[in-house]
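User: Can you help me understand a structure? I only have the sequence.
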Amino acid sequence: MQINAHKVVTIHYTLTDNDGNILDSSSNGEPLNFIQGIGALIAGMEEGLEGKVKGDKLQLKVAPEKGYGIHQPEMVQQVPMSAFGGQMVSEGMQFEAGSDEQRFIVTVTAVGDEFATIDGNHPLAGVELNFDIEVLDVREASEEELAHGHVHGPGGHHH
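Assistant: Let's start by predicting it. Here is the structure, written out as tokens:
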């Protein structure tokens, strides 16, 4: 069975940057289970898996445009320390920001006496991603899985 829209796919993967640093991996844990074609993965990964079958091993190189996007300098801002309501703030902390219509996570990248620099870009924005993937299984998604938008059962969501 080939990977295409509405198939449940089970993979092991290792994600590295162009310097070979491991950014994420399922190899020492549970494999990743997802429904293909519903936006559960970054676009470049879904596109690269399309048509593959159980047992396939592949390497994907995903450009930022098909990964977590291009780094947008306008998403980096300095905010007054008073905006944190007296809370202790340190580099690497993350906060939810935005409006009622759109919420997103910002990361504190620098802290000064009066201002903190926050970055609303995804931490992997602007990074070319390298995936080593092994396809462990491909099956039809159930109507319930499609309705809920996630995999059920072992390795998936349990209600």
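Now, to help you interpret it: The two ends are 27 Å apart (CA to CA). The chain has two domains: 7-68+125-148, 73-119. Let me know which part you'd like to focus on.
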